[in-house]
Write a structure and sequence with these properties.
The complex is a heterodimer of chains A (about 290) and B (about 325). Helices cover about 75% and strands about 5% of the residues of chain A. Chain A is an all-alpha fold. Chain A is globular. Classes of the chains: A mainly alpha (about 290), B mainly alpha (about 325).
Protein backbone atom coordinates (compact mmCIF):
# COMPACT_ATOMS: atom_id res chain seq x y z
CA UNK A 1 0.00 0.00 0.00
CA UNK A 2 1.59 3.33 -1.04
CA UNK A 3 2.46 5.59 1.86
CA UNK A 4 0.86 8.75 0.49
CA UNK A 5 -2.49 6.96 0.14
CA UNK A 6 -2.35 5.94 3.79
CA UNK A 7 -1.34 9.45 4.83
CA UNK A 8 -4.13 11.04 2.82
CA UNK A 9 -6.74 8.71 4.29
CA UNK A 10 -5.35 9.46 7.76
CA UNK A 11 -5.65 13.21 7.20
CA UNK A 12 -9.24 12.86 6.04
CA UNK A 13 -9.96 10.62 9.05
CA UNK A 14 -8.56 13.12 11.53
CA UNK A 15 -10.46 16.05 9.98
CA UNK A 16 -13.75 14.12 9.93
CA UNK A 17 -12.94 13.01 13.47
CA UNK A 18 -12.95 16.62 14.66
CA UNK A 19 -16.53 16.99 13.39
CA UNK A 20 -17.43 13.72 15.13
CA UNK A 21 -15.76 15.19 18.21
CA UNK A 22 -18.06 18.22 18.17
CA UNK A 23 -21.10 15.94 17.87
CA UNK A 24 -19.86 13.86 20.80
CA UNK A 25 -19.10 17.02 22.76
CA UNK A 26 -22.83 17.74 22.78
CA UNK A 27 -23.54 14.30 24.23
CA UNK A 28 -20.75 14.66 26.74
CA UNK A 29 -21.92 18.06 27.98
CA UNK A 30 -25.49 16.78 28.39
CA UNK A 31 -24.41 13.66 30.24
CA UNK A 32 -21.84 15.47 32.35
CA UNK A 33 -24.40 17.94 33.68
CA UNK A 34 -27.88 16.46 33.39
CA UNK A 35 -26.71 12.85 33.96
CA UNK A 36 -29.12 11.61 31.31
CA UNK A 37 -27.74 9.63 28.39
CA UNK A 38 -29.18 11.16 25.24
CA UNK A 39 -30.14 8.10 23.22
CA UNK A 40 -31.59 10.38 20.54
CA UNK A 41 -28.32 12.22 19.90
CA UNK A 42 -27.55 10.85 16.43
CA UNK A 43 -31.18 11.30 15.43
CA UNK A 44 -30.92 14.97 16.42
CA UNK A 45 -27.86 15.24 14.22
CA UNK A 46 -29.57 13.73 11.17
CA UNK A 47 -32.40 16.21 11.78
CA UNK A 48 -29.82 19.03 11.65
CA UNK A 49 -28.37 17.57 8.46
CA UNK A 50 -31.83 17.62 6.88
CA UNK A 51 -32.32 21.20 8.08
CA UNK A 52 -29.11 22.18 6.26
CA UNK A 53 -30.29 20.33 3.12
CA UNK A 54 -33.65 22.14 3.21
CA UNK A 55 -32.05 25.56 3.66
CA UNK A 56 -29.65 24.79 0.82
CA UNK A 57 -32.26 23.57 -1.67
CA UNK A 58 -34.83 26.24 -0.79
CA UNK A 59 -32.62 29.33 -0.44
CA UNK A 60 -29.25 28.17 -1.74
CA UNK A 61 -27.84 28.80 1.72
CA UNK A 62 -24.31 27.48 2.21
CA UNK A 63 -24.24 25.08 5.20
CA UNK A 64 -21.58 27.33 6.78
CA UNK A 65 -24.19 30.10 6.90
CA UNK A 66 -27.00 27.69 7.73
CA UNK A 67 -25.12 26.89 10.93
CA UNK A 68 -26.44 30.04 12.63
CA UNK A 69 -30.22 29.59 12.16
CA UNK A 70 -30.05 25.81 12.59
CA UNK A 71 -28.04 26.05 15.80
CA UNK A 72 -30.39 28.72 17.17
CA UNK A 73 -33.48 26.64 16.42
CA UNK A 74 -31.88 23.52 17.88
CA UNK A 75 -30.90 25.42 21.00
CA UNK A 76 -34.51 26.49 21.49
CA UNK A 77 -35.87 23.01 20.77
CA UNK A 78 -33.32 21.41 23.09
CA UNK A 79 -34.21 23.84 25.85
CA UNK A 80 -37.91 23.14 25.40
CA UNK A 81 -37.40 19.36 25.27
CA UNK A 82 -35.43 19.34 28.50
CA UNK A 83 -37.79 21.73 30.27
CA UNK A 84 -41.01 20.02 29.21
CA UNK A 85 -40.13 16.35 28.92
CA UNK A 86 -36.77 15.34 30.35
CA UNK A 87 -36.60 17.36 33.60
CA UNK A 88 -39.30 15.24 35.29
CA UNK A 89 -37.19 12.17 34.44
CA UNK A 90 -34.01 13.31 36.21
CA UNK A 91 -34.78 11.30 39.33
CA UNK A 92 -36.25 8.30 37.52
CA UNK A 93 -34.31 5.05 37.05
CA UNK A 94 -32.03 4.68 34.04
CA UNK A 95 -34.22 2.28 32.09
CA UNK A 96 -37.07 4.77 32.32
CA UNK A 97 -34.89 7.60 30.94
CA UNK A 98 -33.67 5.23 28.26
CA UNK A 99 -37.22 4.42 27.15
CA UNK A 100 -38.12 8.12 27.03
CA UNK A 101 -35.23 8.96 24.74
CA UNK A 102 -35.80 5.86 22.63
CA UNK A 103 -39.38 7.07 22.11
CA UNK A 104 -38.06 10.48 21.05
CA UNK A 105 -35.56 8.83 18.72
CA UNK A 106 -38.28 6.65 17.13
CA UNK A 107 -40.38 9.77 16.54
CA UNK A 108 -37.42 11.66 15.05
CA UNK A 109 -36.23 8.88 12.71
CA UNK A 110 -39.69 8.18 11.38
CA UNK A 111 -40.73 11.82 11.28
CA UNK A 112 -37.75 12.42 8.98
CA UNK A 113 -38.70 9.33 6.98
CA UNK A 114 -42.23 10.72 6.53
CA UNK A 115 -40.95 14.13 5.55
CA UNK A 116 -38.05 13.27 3.29
CA UNK A 117 -38.45 9.63 2.27
CA UNK A 118 -35.78 6.93 2.49
CA UNK A 119 -33.49 8.26 -0.27
CA UNK A 120 -30.11 9.80 0.48
CA UNK A 121 -29.94 13.62 0.40
CA UNK A 122 -26.91 15.89 0.17
CA UNK A 123 -25.74 19.37 -0.77
CA UNK A 124 -23.51 20.13 -3.74
CA UNK A 125 -21.09 23.05 -3.66
CA UNK A 126 -18.08 23.83 -5.81
CA UNK A 127 -15.54 23.84 -3.02
CA UNK A 128 -16.50 20.27 -1.98
CA UNK A 129 -14.43 19.06 -4.91
CA UNK A 130 -11.49 21.40 -4.38
CA UNK A 131 -8.46 20.68 -2.27
CA UNK A 132 -5.12 22.09 -1.27
CA UNK A 133 -1.98 20.11 -2.00
CA UNK A 134 0.92 20.05 0.40
CA UNK A 135 3.51 17.92 -1.32
CA UNK A 136 1.70 14.65 -1.88
CA UNK A 137 -0.81 15.35 0.87
CA UNK A 138 -4.24 16.52 -0.21
CA UNK A 139 -6.50 18.55 2.09
CA UNK A 140 -10.17 18.67 1.02
CA UNK A 141 -11.34 22.25 1.41
CA UNK A 142 -14.76 21.31 2.79
CA UNK A 143 -13.20 18.95 5.31
CA UNK A 144 -10.67 21.53 6.49
CA UNK A 145 -13.32 24.25 6.88
CA UNK A 146 -15.60 21.84 8.73
CA UNK A 147 -12.83 20.75 11.08
CA UNK A 148 -11.80 24.36 11.76
CA UNK A 149 -15.36 25.38 12.59
CA UNK A 150 -15.72 22.34 14.86
CA UNK A 151 -12.55 23.37 16.67
CA UNK A 152 -13.69 26.99 16.96
CA UNK A 153 -17.09 26.00 18.40
CA UNK A 154 -15.41 23.65 20.85
CA UNK A 155 -13.05 26.41 21.95
CA UNK A 156 -15.94 28.83 22.38
CA UNK A 157 -17.80 26.26 24.46
CA UNK A 158 -14.73 25.65 26.57
CA UNK A 159 -14.37 29.39 27.21
CA UNK A 160 -18.07 29.63 28.05
CA UNK A 161 -17.84 26.94 30.74
CA UNK A 162 -14.56 28.31 32.05
CA UNK A 163 -15.09 32.05 32.20
CA UNK A 164 -18.77 33.04 32.17
CA UNK A 165 -20.94 33.08 35.26
CA UNK A 166 -23.62 30.92 33.62
CA UNK A 167 -20.98 28.42 32.55
CA UNK A 168 -19.64 28.24 36.08
CA UNK A 169 -23.16 27.81 37.44
CA UNK A 170 -23.74 24.90 35.06
CA UNK A 171 -20.49 23.30 36.20
CA UNK A 172 -21.61 23.77 39.79
CA UNK A 173 -24.82 21.84 39.01
CA UNK A 174 -22.75 19.06 37.50
CA UNK A 175 -20.37 18.87 40.47
CA UNK A 176 -22.93 18.99 43.24
CA UNK A 177 -26.62 18.95 42.48
CA UNK A 178 -27.72 19.43 46.09
CA UNK A 179 -25.14 22.15 46.73
CA UNK A 180 -26.30 24.00 43.63
CA UNK A 181 -29.87 23.90 44.93
CA UNK A 182 -28.76 25.11 48.36
CA UNK A 183 -26.98 28.20 47.02
CA UNK A 184 -30.10 29.05 45.05
CA UNK A 185 -29.16 28.17 41.47
CA UNK A 186 -32.10 27.57 39.14
CA UNK A 187 -31.02 24.03 38.46
CA UNK A 188 -33.87 23.10 36.13
CA UNK A 189 -33.30 26.21 34.02
CA UNK A 190 -29.58 25.44 33.88
CA UNK A 191 -30.28 21.83 32.88
CA UNK A 192 -32.49 23.05 30.06
CA UNK A 193 -29.80 25.51 29.02
CA UNK A 194 -27.27 22.66 28.97
CA UNK A 195 -29.47 20.47 26.82
CA UNK A 196 -29.97 23.42 24.50
CA UNK A 197 -26.20 23.88 24.24
CA UNK A 198 -25.72 20.17 23.54
CA UNK A 199 -28.40 20.34 20.84
CA UNK A 200 -26.72 23.40 19.31
CA UNK A 201 -23.37 21.55 19.20
CA UNK A 202 -24.96 18.65 17.40
CA UNK A 203 -26.67 21.10 15.01
CA UNK A 204 -23.33 22.66 14.04
CA UNK A 205 -21.79 19.19 13.64
CA UNK A 206 -24.73 18.14 11.45
CA UNK A 207 -24.38 21.18 9.18
CA UNK A 208 -20.69 20.36 8.77
CA UNK A 209 -21.17 16.66 8.22
CA UNK A 210 -23.68 17.19 5.40
CA UNK A 211 -20.74 18.61 3.40
CA UNK A 212 -18.91 15.32 3.82
CA UNK A 213 -21.54 12.56 3.70
CA UNK A 214 -25.08 11.97 2.40
CA UNK A 215 -27.89 11.70 4.92
CA UNK A 216 -30.71 9.15 5.24
CA UNK A 217 -33.19 8.93 8.14
CA UNK A 218 -31.89 5.55 9.31
CA UNK A 219 -28.38 6.94 9.90
CA UNK A 220 -29.51 8.36 13.26
CA UNK A 221 -29.07 5.29 15.50
CA UNK A 222 -25.61 4.54 14.15
CA UNK A 223 -24.49 8.13 14.85
CA UNK A 224 -25.90 7.79 18.37
CA UNK A 225 -23.75 4.70 18.89
CA UNK A 226 -20.76 6.46 17.34
CA UNK A 227 -21.20 9.38 19.74
CA UNK A 228 -21.33 6.96 22.68
CA UNK A 229 -18.15 5.25 21.59
CA UNK A 230 -16.37 8.59 21.26
CA UNK A 231 -17.39 10.02 24.61
CA UNK A 232 -16.69 6.80 26.51
CA UNK A 233 -13.27 6.49 24.89
CA UNK A 234 -12.49 10.14 25.57
CA UNK A 235 -14.13 10.25 28.98
CA UNK A 236 -17.82 11.02 29.65
CA UNK A 237 -18.10 14.62 30.81
CA UNK A 238 -14.61 15.60 29.66
CA UNK A 239 -14.64 18.20 26.87
CA UNK A 240 -11.10 17.64 25.64
CA UNK A 241 -11.75 13.91 25.80
CA UNK A 242 -14.66 14.18 23.37
CA UNK A 243 -12.46 15.87 20.75
CA UNK A 244 -9.62 13.42 21.30
CA UNK A 245 -12.06 10.50 21.10
CA UNK A 246 -13.52 11.93 17.91
CA UNK A 247 -10.11 12.16 16.27
CA UNK A 248 -9.16 8.65 17.40
CA UNK A 249 -12.40 7.13 16.13
CA UNK A 250 -12.26 9.11 12.89
CA UNK A 251 -8.72 7.88 12.33
CA UNK A 252 -9.44 4.24 13.26
CA UNK A 253 -12.54 4.20 11.03
CA UNK A 254 -10.57 5.57 8.11
CA UNK A 255 -7.75 3.04 8.63
CA UNK A 256 -10.11 0.08 9.09
CA UNK A 257 -11.96 1.15 5.94
CA UNK A 258 -8.71 1.26 4.01
CA UNK A 259 -7.01 -1.90 5.28
CA UNK A 260 -9.92 -4.24 6.02
CA UNK A 261 -13.39 -3.37 4.75
CA UNK A 262 -15.45 -0.18 5.05
CA UNK A 263 -18.37 -2.20 6.43
CA UNK A 264 -16.21 -3.57 9.25
CA UNK A 265 -14.98 -0.17 10.42
CA UNK A 266 -17.30 0.26 13.38
CA UNK A 267 -16.35 -3.18 14.67
CA UNK A 268 -13.03 -1.66 15.68
CA UNK A 269 -14.76 1.24 17.36
CA UNK A 270 -16.82 -1.18 19.44
CA UNK A 271 -13.79 -3.28 20.30
CA UNK A 272 -12.07 -0.08 21.44
CA UNK A 273 -15.15 0.82 23.48
CA UNK A 274 -15.14 -2.57 25.24
CA UNK A 275 -11.44 -2.29 26.07
CA UNK A 276 -11.75 1.26 27.38
CA UNK A 277 -14.82 0.37 29.46
CA UNK A 278 -12.98 -2.51 31.07
CA UNK A 279 -9.55 -1.04 31.65
CA UNK A 280 -10.13 2.67 31.87
CA UNK A 281 -13.86 3.22 32.46
CA UNK A 282 -13.36 6.92 33.15
CA UNK A 283 -12.07 7.29 29.57
CA UNK A 284 -8.73 8.49 28.31
CA UNK A 285 -9.03 12.02 29.67
CA UNK A 286 -11.78 11.55 32.25
CA UNK A 287 -11.53 11.94 35.99
CA UNK A 288 -12.29 8.95 38.21
CA UNK A 289 -15.42 9.61 40.24
CA UNK B 1 -53.80 -14.86 45.73
CA UNK B 2 -56.83 -17.00 44.87
CA UNK B 3 -58.23 -14.42 42.46
CA UNK B 4 -54.84 -14.18 40.82
CA UNK B 5 -54.60 -17.94 40.30
CA UNK B 6 -58.12 -18.11 38.88
CA UNK B 7 -57.40 -15.21 36.55
CA UNK B 8 -54.22 -16.85 35.30
CA UNK B 9 -55.98 -20.17 34.74
CA UNK B 10 -58.75 -18.48 32.74
CA UNK B 11 -56.15 -16.66 30.62
CA UNK B 12 -54.21 -19.88 30.01
CA UNK B 13 -57.37 -21.76 29.00
CA UNK B 14 -58.36 -18.94 26.66
CA UNK B 15 -54.94 -19.09 25.03
CA UNK B 16 -55.03 -22.90 24.74
CA UNK B 17 -58.39 -22.85 22.96
CA UNK B 18 -57.69 -19.64 21.05
CA UNK B 19 -56.56 -21.34 17.76
CA UNK B 20 -59.94 -23.13 17.51
CA UNK B 21 -61.72 -19.93 16.55
CA UNK B 22 -58.87 -17.63 15.48
CA UNK B 23 -57.96 -16.67 11.93
CA UNK B 24 -54.44 -17.39 10.76
CA UNK B 25 -53.67 -13.66 10.98
CA UNK B 26 -54.82 -13.47 14.61
CA UNK B 27 -52.81 -16.59 15.35
CA UNK B 28 -49.64 -15.00 13.96
CA UNK B 29 -50.23 -11.84 16.00
CA UNK B 30 -50.68 -13.78 19.24
CA UNK B 31 -47.61 -15.89 18.42
CA UNK B 32 -45.64 -12.66 18.13
CA UNK B 33 -47.09 -11.37 21.42
CA UNK B 34 -46.09 -14.59 23.17
CA UNK B 35 -42.61 -14.42 21.65
CA UNK B 36 -42.03 -10.93 23.03
CA UNK B 37 -43.68 -11.90 26.33
CA UNK B 38 -41.20 -14.77 26.63
CA UNK B 39 -38.14 -12.70 25.65
CA UNK B 40 -39.28 -9.84 27.90
CA UNK B 41 -39.66 -12.26 30.80
CA UNK B 42 -36.10 -13.45 30.19
CA UNK B 43 -34.78 -9.85 30.14
CA UNK B 44 -36.80 -9.08 33.26
CA UNK B 45 -34.82 -11.68 35.25
CA UNK B 46 -31.70 -9.59 34.75
CA UNK B 47 -33.13 -6.08 34.96
CA UNK B 48 -36.43 -6.41 36.82
CA UNK B 49 -35.20 -8.84 39.47
CA UNK B 50 -31.47 -8.14 39.83
CA UNK B 51 -31.39 -4.53 38.58
CA UNK B 52 -28.76 -5.03 35.85
CA UNK B 53 -29.76 -3.01 32.78
CA UNK B 54 -28.98 -4.87 29.56
CA UNK B 55 -29.53 -3.04 26.28
CA UNK B 56 -27.90 -5.78 24.23
CA UNK B 57 -30.19 -8.79 24.58
CA UNK B 58 -30.30 -9.18 20.81
CA UNK B 59 -26.84 -10.74 21.28
CA UNK B 60 -28.37 -13.78 22.98
CA UNK B 61 -31.30 -13.97 20.56
CA UNK B 62 -28.89 -13.92 17.63
CA UNK B 63 -26.28 -16.31 18.97
CA UNK B 64 -28.95 -18.72 20.19
CA UNK B 65 -30.65 -18.61 16.81
CA UNK B 66 -27.48 -19.03 14.75
CA UNK B 67 -26.07 -21.87 16.86
CA UNK B 68 -29.25 -23.96 16.65
CA UNK B 69 -29.80 -23.12 12.98
CA UNK B 70 -26.26 -24.08 11.95
CA UNK B 71 -26.38 -27.29 14.00
CA UNK B 72 -29.67 -28.23 12.33
CA UNK B 73 -28.92 -27.20 8.77
CA UNK B 74 -25.26 -28.17 8.50
CA UNK B 75 -24.84 -30.99 11.02
CA UNK B 76 -28.36 -32.42 11.20
CA UNK B 77 -28.66 -31.88 14.95
CA UNK B 78 -32.33 -31.46 15.87
CA UNK B 79 -33.57 -28.38 17.72
CA UNK B 80 -34.27 -30.26 20.96
CA UNK B 81 -30.60 -31.12 21.23
CA UNK B 82 -29.45 -27.88 19.63
CA UNK B 83 -31.37 -25.72 22.09
CA UNK B 84 -29.18 -26.96 24.94
CA UNK B 85 -26.04 -26.07 23.02
CA UNK B 86 -27.52 -22.65 22.20
CA UNK B 87 -28.34 -22.13 25.85
CA UNK B 88 -24.87 -23.22 26.89
CA UNK B 89 -23.26 -20.88 24.35
CA UNK B 90 -25.33 -17.91 25.49
CA UNK B 91 -24.85 -18.75 29.16
CA UNK B 92 -21.10 -18.78 28.53
CA UNK B 93 -21.31 -15.44 26.69
CA UNK B 94 -23.42 -13.94 29.47
CA UNK B 95 -20.98 -15.29 32.03
CA UNK B 96 -18.03 -13.76 30.19
CA UNK B 97 -19.70 -10.34 29.88
CA UNK B 98 -20.98 -10.45 33.45
CA UNK B 99 -17.61 -11.55 34.79
CA UNK B 100 -15.76 -8.76 32.99
CA UNK B 101 -18.30 -6.11 33.95
CA UNK B 102 -18.76 -7.07 37.60
CA UNK B 103 -15.08 -7.82 38.26
CA UNK B 104 -14.08 -4.47 36.78
CA UNK B 105 -16.84 -2.75 38.75
CA UNK B 106 -18.86 -1.50 35.78
CA UNK B 107 -22.44 -0.61 36.62
CA UNK B 108 -25.36 1.58 35.63
CA UNK B 109 -25.16 3.40 32.32
CA UNK B 110 -21.67 2.03 31.66
CA UNK B 111 -22.88 -1.55 32.04
CA UNK B 112 -25.75 -0.84 29.65
CA UNK B 113 -23.35 0.62 27.07
CA UNK B 114 -21.06 -2.40 27.49
CA UNK B 115 -23.94 -4.74 26.61
CA UNK B 116 -24.69 -2.62 23.50
CA UNK B 117 -21.02 -2.75 22.51
CA UNK B 118 -20.90 -6.55 22.68
CA UNK B 119 -24.11 -6.91 20.68
CA UNK B 120 -23.00 -4.46 17.98
CA UNK B 121 -19.53 -6.01 17.81
CA UNK B 122 -21.11 -9.42 17.25
CA UNK B 123 -23.57 -8.05 14.68
CA UNK B 124 -20.80 -6.64 12.51
CA UNK B 125 -18.74 -9.78 13.10
CA UNK B 126 -21.56 -11.99 11.79
CA UNK B 127 -21.92 -9.63 8.82
CA UNK B 128 -18.40 -10.66 7.84
CA UNK B 129 -18.61 -14.33 8.78
CA UNK B 130 -18.68 -16.39 5.60
CA UNK B 131 -19.90 -19.72 7.06
CA UNK B 132 -23.18 -18.09 8.09
CA UNK B 133 -23.67 -16.36 4.74
CA UNK B 134 -22.65 -12.94 6.08
CA UNK B 135 -25.12 -10.13 5.38
CA UNK B 136 -26.88 -12.35 2.81
CA UNK B 137 -28.43 -14.34 5.62
CA UNK B 138 -28.70 -17.96 6.74
CA UNK B 139 -31.71 -20.04 5.72
CA UNK B 140 -33.33 -23.17 7.07
CA UNK B 141 -34.89 -25.65 4.69
CA UNK B 142 -38.66 -25.21 4.68
CA UNK B 143 -40.59 -28.46 4.36
CA UNK B 144 -43.66 -30.30 5.67
CA UNK B 145 -45.71 -27.23 6.41
CA UNK B 146 -48.89 -29.27 7.04
CA UNK B 147 -47.87 -32.16 9.28
CA UNK B 148 -46.51 -31.70 12.77
CA UNK B 149 -42.88 -32.70 13.09
CA UNK B 150 -42.36 -31.55 16.64
CA UNK B 151 -39.04 -33.36 16.89
CA UNK B 152 -37.51 -31.15 14.18
CA UNK B 153 -39.77 -28.15 14.82
CA UNK B 154 -41.08 -28.30 11.27
CA UNK B 155 -44.78 -27.74 10.94
CA UNK B 156 -47.73 -25.39 10.51
CA UNK B 157 -47.99 -22.06 12.38
CA UNK B 158 -50.36 -23.56 14.94
CA UNK B 159 -47.58 -25.87 16.14
CA UNK B 160 -45.29 -22.89 16.71
CA UNK B 161 -48.14 -21.20 18.56
CA UNK B 162 -48.33 -24.05 21.07
CA UNK B 163 -44.54 -24.23 21.37
CA UNK B 164 -44.21 -20.54 22.25
CA UNK B 165 -47.29 -20.73 24.51
CA UNK B 166 -45.66 -23.56 26.45
CA UNK B 167 -42.37 -21.63 26.62
CA UNK B 168 -44.06 -18.46 27.85
CA UNK B 169 -46.11 -20.33 30.46
CA UNK B 170 -42.96 -22.17 31.55
CA UNK B 171 -40.96 -18.94 31.82
CA UNK B 172 -43.78 -17.35 33.81
CA UNK B 173 -43.86 -20.29 36.24
CA UNK B 174 -40.06 -20.32 36.52
CA UNK B 175 -39.97 -16.60 37.30
CA UNK B 176 -42.76 -16.98 39.86
CA UNK B 177 -40.71 -19.69 41.56
CA UNK B 178 -37.52 -17.63 41.34
CA UNK B 179 -39.17 -14.63 42.99
CA UNK B 180 -40.14 -16.79 45.96
CA UNK B 181 -36.72 -18.44 46.19
CA UNK B 182 -33.59 -17.32 47.98
CA UNK B 183 -32.21 -16.03 44.68
CA UNK B 184 -35.28 -13.84 44.13
CA UNK B 185 -34.96 -12.18 47.54
CA UNK B 186 -31.22 -11.69 47.14
CA UNK B 187 -31.67 -10.22 43.66
CA UNK B 188 -34.22 -7.70 44.85
CA UNK B 189 -31.98 -6.77 47.76
CA UNK B 190 -29.16 -6.13 45.26
CA UNK B 191 -31.50 -4.20 42.97
CA UNK B 192 -32.66 -1.89 45.75
CA UNK B 193 -29.27 -1.26 47.37
CA UNK B 194 -26.22 -3.22 46.37
CA UNK B 195 -23.96 -1.88 49.13
CA UNK B 196 -26.54 -2.75 51.79
CA UNK B 197 -26.98 -6.23 50.33
CA UNK B 198 -23.24 -6.75 50.42
CA UNK B 199 -23.08 -5.53 54.01
CA UNK B 200 -25.66 -8.19 54.93
CA UNK B 201 -23.29 -10.85 53.63
CA UNK B 202 -24.80 -11.48 50.21
CA UNK B 203 -22.15 -12.40 47.65
CA UNK B 204 -23.45 -9.85 45.15
CA UNK B 205 -21.00 -10.89 42.43
CA UNK B 206 -22.23 -14.48 42.45
CA UNK B 207 -25.93 -13.63 42.45
CA UNK B 208 -25.60 -10.99 39.73
CA UNK B 209 -23.72 -13.57 37.63
CA UNK B 210 -26.54 -16.05 38.17
CA UNK B 211 -29.07 -13.48 36.95
CA UNK B 212 -27.08 -12.69 33.80
CA UNK B 213 -26.43 -16.36 32.97
CA UNK B 214 -30.03 -17.38 33.54
CA UNK B 215 -31.36 -14.46 31.52
CA UNK B 216 -28.95 -15.17 28.65
CA UNK B 217 -29.83 -18.87 28.55
CA UNK B 218 -33.57 -18.12 28.59
CA UNK B 219 -33.14 -15.57 25.78
CA UNK B 220 -31.21 -18.17 23.75
CA UNK B 221 -34.39 -20.30 23.64
CA UNK B 222 -36.23 -17.31 22.17
CA UNK B 223 -33.50 -17.19 19.53
CA UNK B 224 -33.96 -20.87 18.66
CA UNK B 225 -37.70 -20.31 18.31
CA UNK B 226 -36.99 -17.28 16.14
CA UNK B 227 -34.75 -19.33 13.83
CA UNK B 228 -37.20 -22.20 13.33
CA UNK B 229 -40.31 -20.03 13.11
CA UNK B 230 -39.00 -17.60 10.51
CA UNK B 231 -36.51 -19.98 8.81
CA UNK B 232 -34.20 -17.08 7.96
CA UNK B 233 -31.59 -15.18 9.92
CA UNK B 234 -29.96 -11.88 8.99
CA UNK B 235 -27.34 -10.29 11.26
CA UNK B 236 -28.91 -6.90 10.50
CA UNK B 237 -32.17 -8.15 12.02
CA UNK B 238 -31.45 -10.57 14.84
CA UNK B 239 -28.45 -8.72 16.30
CA UNK B 240 -29.67 -5.18 15.66
CA UNK B 241 -30.08 -2.80 18.58
CA UNK B 242 -33.69 -2.25 17.56
CA UNK B 243 -34.31 -5.93 18.35
CA UNK B 244 -32.88 -5.36 21.85
CA UNK B 245 -35.19 -2.38 22.24
CA UNK B 246 -38.21 -4.41 21.07
CA UNK B 247 -37.45 -6.99 23.76
CA UNK B 248 -37.17 -4.34 26.46
CA UNK B 249 -40.28 -2.38 25.46
CA UNK B 250 -42.72 -5.04 26.69
CA UNK B 251 -41.51 -5.30 30.28
CA UNK B 252 -40.84 -1.54 30.58
CA UNK B 253 -44.32 -0.63 29.35
CA UNK B 254 -45.94 -3.49 31.27
CA UNK B 255 -43.99 -3.01 34.48
CA UNK B 256 -40.33 -3.79 35.19
CA UNK B 257 -39.81 -6.43 37.89
CA UNK B 258 -43.39 -7.67 37.86
CA UNK B 259 -44.35 -11.15 36.67
CA UNK B 260 -47.26 -10.07 34.56
CA UNK B 261 -45.68 -6.88 33.18
CA UNK B 262 -43.75 -8.47 30.29
CA UNK B 263 -46.83 -10.41 29.16
CA UNK B 264 -49.17 -7.43 29.38
CA UNK B 265 -46.62 -5.07 27.79
CA UNK B 266 -46.00 -7.39 24.85
CA UNK B 267 -49.75 -7.76 24.36
CA UNK B 268 -50.42 -4.03 24.48
CA UNK B 269 -47.52 -3.07 22.20
CA UNK B 270 -48.04 -5.72 19.53
CA UNK B 271 -51.79 -5.06 19.43
CA UNK B 272 -51.10 -1.33 19.25
CA UNK B 273 -48.58 -1.74 16.44
CA UNK B 274 -50.90 -3.97 14.40
CA UNK B 275 -53.89 -1.80 15.23
CA UNK B 276 -52.12 1.26 13.86
CA UNK B 277 -51.23 -0.63 10.69
CA UNK B 278 -54.87 -1.63 10.17
CA UNK B 279 -56.14 1.85 10.94
CA UNK B 280 -53.71 3.52 8.53
CA UNK B 281 -54.55 1.00 5.82
CA UNK B 282 -58.25 1.74 6.37
CA UNK B 283 -57.71 5.47 5.89
CA UNK B 284 -55.19 4.99 3.05
CA UNK B 285 -52.44 6.75 4.98
CA UNK B 286 -49.68 4.26 4.36
CA UNK B 287 -46.77 6.73 4.23
CA UNK B 288 -43.56 5.05 5.44
CA UNK B 289 -42.84 6.12 9.00
CA UNK B 290 -46.36 7.17 10.06
CA UNK B 291 -46.95 3.99 12.01
CA UNK B 292 -43.70 4.26 13.95
CA UNK B 293 -44.33 7.92 14.77
CA UNK B 294 -47.69 6.98 16.33
CA UNK B 295 -45.99 4.15 18.15
CA UNK B 296 -43.28 6.49 19.44
CA UNK B 297 -45.83 9.02 20.67
CA UNK B 298 -47.80 6.37 22.57
CA UNK B 299 -44.55 5.07 24.04
CA UNK B 300 -43.61 8.59 25.11
CA UNK B 301 -46.98 9.12 26.79
CA UNK B 302 -46.84 5.80 28.64
CA UNK B 303 -43.33 6.35 30.00
CA UNK B 304 -44.22 9.92 30.98
CA UNK B 305 -47.49 9.24 32.76
CA UNK B 306 -47.14 5.64 33.98
CA UNK B 307 -43.57 5.60 35.33
CA UNK B 308 -43.90 2.09 36.80
CA UNK B 309 -45.66 0.61 33.79
CA UNK B 310 -49.23 -0.37 33.08
CA UNK B 311 -49.51 -3.48 35.23
CA UNK B 312 -48.80 -1.93 38.67
CA UNK B 313 -51.35 0.81 37.97
CA UNK B 314 -53.88 -1.71 36.68
CA UNK B 315 -53.27 -4.18 39.50
CA UNK B 316 -53.98 -1.49 42.08
CA UNK B 317 -57.17 -0.55 40.27
CA UNK B 318 -58.61 -4.06 40.09
CA UNK B 319 -57.32 -5.02 43.52
CA UNK B 320 -54.96 -7.84 42.62
CA UNK B 321 -51.70 -7.83 44.51
CA UNK B 322 -48.66 -7.27 42.32
Amino acid sequence: MPFDLVANVAVAGVLTGLVYGLMALGLSVIFGVVRVVNFAHGEMMTAAMYAAVVLFTAFGLDPFLAVLPVAAVFFALGYALQAAVINPFITRPEHSQFMLLVAISIILVNGLLMGFGPDAKNVQLDYQLESWALGKLLFDKARVYAALLALAVSAALFAFFRFTLTGKAIRACADNHLGALVVGLRVKHLYSLTFGIGAACVAVAGCMLILLVDVTPVLGPSYTLLAFVIVIVGGLGSMGGALLGGVLIGLSEAMAGLFIAPSAKSMFSFALLILVLLFRPQGLLGRRT
Amino acid sequence: MKREAVGLLVLLLLLVFFPLFASSYALSVVTLILFFAYAGQAWNVMMGFAGQLSLGHSLYVGVGAYVAAILFQTYGVGPWAGVWISMAACAALGAAIGFLAFRFGISGVYFALLTIAFAEFTRIGFDHLTITGGPGGFFLKVSQRESWDLLNLRGPPIMFYYVILALTAGAFALCALLLRSRAGYYWRAIREDEAAAQALGINTFRWKMLAVILSAAMTAVAGVFNAFYYNNLFPEQVFHISRSIEIILGPVIGGVGTLFGPVLGAGVLTTLSDGITELLAYYNLEIPGVKQVFYGVVLLLVVMFLPHGIWPALAKRIGIFR
